[in-house]
Write a structure and sequence with these properties.
Shape: elongated
CATH class of the largest domain: Alpha Beta
Helix content: 25-40%
CATH architecture of the largest domain: 3-Layer(aba) Sandwich
Number of strands: 12
Distance between the termini: 50 Å
Oligomer: single chain
Number of helices: 10
Strand content: 25-35%
Structural class: alpha/beta
Length: 291
């Protein structure tokens, strides 16, 4: 790869802190093994052949995967801590505190996606724990699905559903809205999935509103985009009414939904048989402060 990038055996040798004859010998041995030339000389430069270009692309993939294996080894040795979450400014804020406390012991990594993605990352060992929420009435079914992946959902709190609004929303100065009013609002939502908030928001009375018929004007899994839309437009979003607002000290506020019987369970996903690490236990305790 160094010869490809530098176009010269001499420059590649300097980059690799070795001699030009060593580089030439390695390339020659590789060409002999493959039975085809990887480079050809054009003037003062070594140019990659057509076959060499194909080999180069495979080499890039191998190097990338080698790097991933090294990172996985670091994780297994306890030097890396990875958390998977649904899009949330609340969780993002905890990482600053994590850095202050654990910066000399761990490198943190944050994966953000849908609830299905979160569980998948934990299942594959790409994250130690994953924060998620699910309707309380769906907990049994949710854990049944997770059990097939040898995972479990640990409930930390039960909270009501709400809508989040910004200063430009017509109901911003109110404390609550009736569920029957939601069809008149404009919503921004995350990508649709079975365990999404919208899927589980149901009224107690018969057929007051079907959330599938709500007026969704935008979809985004970016918490920053959602925050910007709430602050600067008249759209709103359906969410969980945390003990401390997920939007911190911003002008976004939560309105209670009158007539909504859906309670949301907030918690974390982990492997059934794995012991939670010290940084994971710390992260869970910090997250609990906000919910």
């Amino acid at each position: 790869m160094a010869v490809c990038d530098k176009g010269s055996f001499n420059k590649a040798a300097e980059c690799l802190y070795t001699s030009q004859p060593n580089v030439s010998r390695v390339i020659r041995n590789l060409e002999d093994e493959l039975g085809q030339n990887l480079f050809e000389r054009q003037g003062n430069r070594m140019v990659v052949t057509h076959y060499g270009e194909t080999v180069k692309e495979y080499a890039r993939v191998i190097l990338k995967h080698s790097s991933m294996i090294v990172k996985l080894a670091e994780y297994r040795n306890g030097r890396n801590f990875t958390v998977a979450t649904y899009p949330s400014g609340t969780v993002s804020g905890i990482f600053a505190e994590f850095y202050d406390k654990w910066k000399h012991e761990y490198t943190a990594e944050h994966l953000e996606g849908s609830i299905e993605s979160v569980s998948d990352w934990v299942s594959k060992g790409l994250a130690e724990i994953g924060f998620a929420y699910v309707a309380e009435k769906q907990l049994k079914f949710f854990n049944h699905i997770l059990n097939h992946k040898k995972l479990i959902f640990n409930v930390m709190a039960i909270r009501d559903a709400c809508i989040y609004v910004g200063p430009r929303h017509p109901r911003y100065n109110d404390e609550s809205v009736d569920i029957s009013e939601l069809h008149g609002f404009k919503f921004i939502s995350g990508a649709r999935e079975y365990f999404s908030m919208e899927h589980h928001l149901t009224p107690v009375s018969l057929g007051v509103i079907d959330t599938a018929d709500l007026n969704y004007v935008m979809y985004s899994n970016s918490d920053q985009t959602v925050s910007s839309m709430l602050l600067n437009t008249d759209v709103c979003s359906i969410g969980v009414n945390y003990k401390i607002s997920r939007y911190g000290k911003s002008d976004i506020k939560a309105l209670k939904i009158n007539g909504c019987s859906t309670a949301m369970a907030i918690g974390y996903i982990c492997h059934i048989n794995n012991k939670i690490s010290k940084p994971a236990s710390w992260f869970i305790s910090q997250f609990k402060r906000f919910i």
